[in-house]
């Protein structure tokens, strides 16, 4: 009954918008068709100037999306800044491959002696070996740690490194151990900053779940992965805008430069 009433009320609201401003109704239909959420689509359409035609309205929407998407500028990214960064996120989003890609960029810019890799993934079979293979290719040291004490001791030994990247075990957004992972990485006044990998292939509801689960202490920004596998990146852009997240990088494919 509730679902039926909500559907009818939604239909009435849509019909009213179509009668009052058919251009805005058509543009809202375009946003929804692209994969944007009703919430963001409605906010954008309501903020649109009155009296614009379809082409100008579409141009305005693109500009509004670009303005509200918080993208880190070139030169302000964390590879340039340096520090200790952990890549976190659900299983299968490409954390290990992304660590290798970022490390490769840092090696080209600062040299292999200024970069170090750490893995905390002791769950997956061969997870350490995969990162160690990348480390050998890049001539970068790879350290495996099992607990918070080992992590702090390893970081203390790597103080001369410009960039330290930590590959973490993937956890479902509904896994209660995420809180323990955050404490493990960011406890005891740790300088580790966390970057969340969001898959561009996920739907709006799933992306919201991931952000809510992983957001917390030490959250520095987002890396959008698998854009080459996504039919539309609108849900991911929508999520970033609504949650006010900083986008540092986008990644595609399995190739490590």
Can you put this structure into words, describing what you see?
The protein has 257 residues and is of the alpha/beta class. The protein folds into two domains: 2-68, no CATH class; 78-250, Rossmann fold (3-Layer(aba) Sandwich), CATH 3.40.50.300. The protein is built from eleven helices and seven strands. The chain has a seven-stranded parallel sheet with strand order 3-2-4-1-5-6-7, with helices on both faces. The longest helix is centred in the N-terminal third of the chain and has 19 residues, at 2-20. The chain is elongated.
Defining traits:
elongated, disordered N terminus, alpha/beta, 7-stranded parallel β-sheet, about 50% helix, about 260 residues, single chain
**Shape designation:** elongated
- State the domain count: 2
Q: For the record, give the distance between the C-alpha atoms at the N and C termini, rounded to a whole number.
A: 55 Å
Quaternary state of this entry equals: single chain
Computed Rg: 21 Å
- Second rung of CATH, namely the architecture of the largest domain: 3-Layer(aba) Sandwich
In the CATH scheme, the class of the largest domain would be: Alpha Beta
Number of strands: 7
Q: Give the name of the CATH superfamily of the largest domain.
A: P-loop containing nucleotide triphosphate hydrolases
Unreliable stretches, pLDDT < 50, 5 or more residues? 1-13
